[in-house]
Hints:
Layout: H1 2-20, E1 27-32, E2 35-41, H2 44-47, H3 54-66, E3 75-80, H4 84-92, E4 97-102, E5 127-130, H5 134-148
Parallel strand pairs: 3-4, 4-5
Antiparallel strand pairs: 1-2, 1-3
Amino acid sequence: MKNDEFWMEKALALADKAQQQGEVPIGALVVRDDMVLGEGWNQPIVNHDPTAHAEIQALRAASKQANNYRLPDATLYVTLEPCVMCAGAIVHARIKRLVFAATEPKTGAAGSCFDIFNTSRLNHHVSCEHGILADKSGDLLRTFFRARR
Length: 149
């Protein structure tokens, strides 16, 4: 649990990078054996790329670092529950464990709106935990969206 908080703090710092670029403040990082393999933050606006979510950016960086598109025994930390697109990428990367801070009731694919990780139809299952620094992540998101309205 302490390790989870440590890594989630790092993900929240990455979310700040997204916010500084005018992006929705979401950060993610892939960790294996207490080493960061890859990190990312939301960049769809600045990159003109609808797939440039924080999770995708982190998975791309981690895959390059590992020299493998599969990331077995890795944990993905993300500040907001992944969407369906990101959940699919997490499954395909063979991430072992997902830890996310805040739930996303409108588009969350880890139990809120969809439950991609617990379906028996897929050949890989990801262990999910949530709520780690959820208040901090939620506050960051609420502040961001209030400022935009």
